[in-house]
Design goal:
InterPro entries: AbfB_ABD (IPR007934), AbfB_ABD_sf (IPR036195), GH43_arabinanases (IPR050727), Glyco_hydro_beta-prop_sf (IPR023296)
Strand order of the largest sheet: 3-2-1-22
Domain Alpha-L-arabinofuranosidase B arabinose-binding: 359-488
CATH class of the largest domain: Mainly Beta
Structural class: mainly beta
Organism: Streptomyces millisiae
Number of strands: 34
CATH architecture of the largest domain: 5 Propeller
Strand content: 35-45%
CATH superfamily of the largest domain: Glycosyl hydrolase domain, family 43
GO molecular function: hydrolase activity
Signal peptide: 1-33
Mean pLDDT: 92
Number of domains: 2
Shape: elongated
Low-confidence stretches: 1-39
């Protein structure tokens, strides 16, 4: 090889500066890469985001935690962690994901609230074409929800359901995919579409992603990445399309190869009966080459069940598991995120501490306790069931330090609040009015200083009191009122 001529001195100085700059750049890149790797390793636990059903506060975002991926504990005392205040004011199918750098998180969910009285026909054909998005930098402090109208540009789109999102390392952005019911080639049915985004605010035009043959629709689909390509592929996809169909690919947009379904296990999405399930939800086990596919047994109401595999390359490798528990709340279609020790510590510090259960005893009728009955509130003796008189005294939904709210034990997410100065038990709807109506300041008891009275946050001249055993919010002007407005917490 012919050696090049020597460089002039000026050029050598320029080259030295260039090399120094490259060293600095490489050092900076190396530190950043190391920081990112440290942020994501090791994983020590799991966080499940889900909803619980079609009851008043069931279509919101709930969190559950697990150390082993099989036994789950409801966080936030079983109450919702996030409430949608946009669109239909309800969400289903939350998808929880982390940025590759581990410095940002998103929840993307279906904008739908069947509990408001919406019919399934209206929801599928005349529903929201937007998704609901929350954003966080630490998993505990979340932005206000916002709408992302991903399906509005699809001709005849009736909805946008069951969203998922995954980072695409080939392009450096995220693929967001969901199901929309729309006409195409003379057939109206659910198909899966996708867009690309870098910030979950702006996005590309929607494109068709998955379509099944004939009139067969597809709604729920979720992808798991297997970086070491165990089983022969990098990505595996589980879809509810009459069966639970498993497919594989080496790129997020495919091409995809069908590996089979779960009919040999007596599991389907209705096409062949058996255990009819939906909402497939992947979960890689931390620290070992094993995966769980959680399936919602919605037809029988038994909730999620896991099947597991150490090689996703064949559907015959799945086995059923019986060694699991899902906590108190019913878990409906969601997603599972592996947690680092730092993430797990933050999440449990914010939502993992269980608040004690108390009863609220009347001062002047000490055999009676505050209870809800058909969502009305009164003081009664011999309360049955006992949980109707049990509450968790939590930090106030409004107000500053020292304010409290009373959350029902048997209706998590429901609170005592005054409405026209009468008390009811209602779910937190996220509004400022609700939260003010459900917030109180404990003060020394008006009838006995060793007891407690509760002054209204938004009507500070009024207190909680019982009148003819019904709970009210009143101005207190005499000794009877002071006794009626005095209570204490008991175990």
């Amino acid at each position: 090889m012919r050696r090049p001529p020597s460089l002039p001195r000026r050029s050598r100085r320029g080259l030295g500066s260039l090399l120094a700059a490259l060293v600095l750049l490489f050092t900076s890149w190396s530190v950043t890469a190391a920081d990112r790797a440290a942020a994501l390793d090791p994983f020590t636990g799991y966080l499940m985001a889900h909803f619980t059903g079609e009851h008043a506060n069931g279509e919101q975002v709930y969190f559950s935690h697990s150390r082993d991926g099989l036994h789950w504990t409801d966080l936030n005392d079983g109450a919702p962690v996030l409430l949608s205040t946009v669109g239909t004011r309800g969400v289903r199918d939350p998808s929880l994901l982390r940025s590759p750098a581990g410095d940002r998180y998103w929840i993307v969910a279906t904008d739908l609230r069947i509990a408001s009285g919406t019919s399934w026909d209206d929801a599928a054909n005349r529903g929201s074409t937007s998704l609901v998005v929350w954003e966080s930098t630490d998993l505990v402090t979340w932005s206000a929800p916002r709408l992302l109208d991903v399906a509005g540009a699809i001709p005849g789109a009736g909805n946008a359901w069951a969203p998922e999102a995954i980072h695409d390392p080939a392009t450096g952005d995220y693929v967001v995919y969901w199901a929309t019911n729309a006409p195409r080639n003379g057939v109206t049915k659910h198909r899966v579409y996708y867009v690309r985004t870098r910030d979950f605010r702006t996005f590309t035009a929607p494109q068709l992603y998955i379509e099944r043959a004939g009139t067969r629709g597809i709604i729920d689909t979720q992808i798991v990445e297997v970086p070491d390509a165990t089983g022969g592929y990098r990505y595996y996809r589980a879809s509810a399309d009459g069966q639970i169909t498993i497919e594989a690919a080496n790129a997020i947009l495919g091409p995809w190869t069908t590996l089979g379904d779960l009919s040999h296990m007596g599991i389907s999405n209705g096409a062949t009966g058996g255990n009819v399930v939906e909402g497939p939800m992947w979960m890689p086990f931390n620290g070992r080459g094993e995966w769980a596919l959680w399936l919602d047994q919605f037809a029988t109401g038994r909730g999620y069940m896991p099947i597991t595999s150490t090689n996703l390359g064949s559907t015959r490798n799945f086995t059923t598991r019986g060694d699991y528990s899902l906590g108190t709340n019913r878990k409906r279609h969601g997603s599972i995120l592996a947690l680092t020790a730092a993430e797990e510590s933050r999440v449990l510090a914010r939502w993992g501490t269980s608040t004690p259960v108390n009863r609220i005893q009347s001062y002047n009728n000490q055999d009676r306790y505050v209870r809800h009955a058909n969502f009305d509130v009164r003081v009664d003796a011999n309360v049955s069931p006992a949980q109707d008189a049990q509450f968790r005294v939590v930090r106030g939904l409004a107000g500053g330090s020292g304010h409290v709210s009373f959350q029902s034990v048997n209706f998590p997410g429901y609170y005592l609040r005054h409405r026209d100065f009468d008390f009811v038990l209602e779910p937190d709807d996220g509004s400022a009015t609700f939260r003010a109506d459900a917030t109180f300041l404990p003060v020394a008891g008006l009838a006995a200083s060793s007891w407690t009275s509760y002054r209204s946050y938004n009507f500070p001249d009024r207190y909680i009191r019982h009148w003819d055993y019904e709970l009210r919010l009143d101005q207190i002007t005499d000794a009877t009122g002071r006794a009626d407005a005095t209570f204490r917490l008991t175990g």
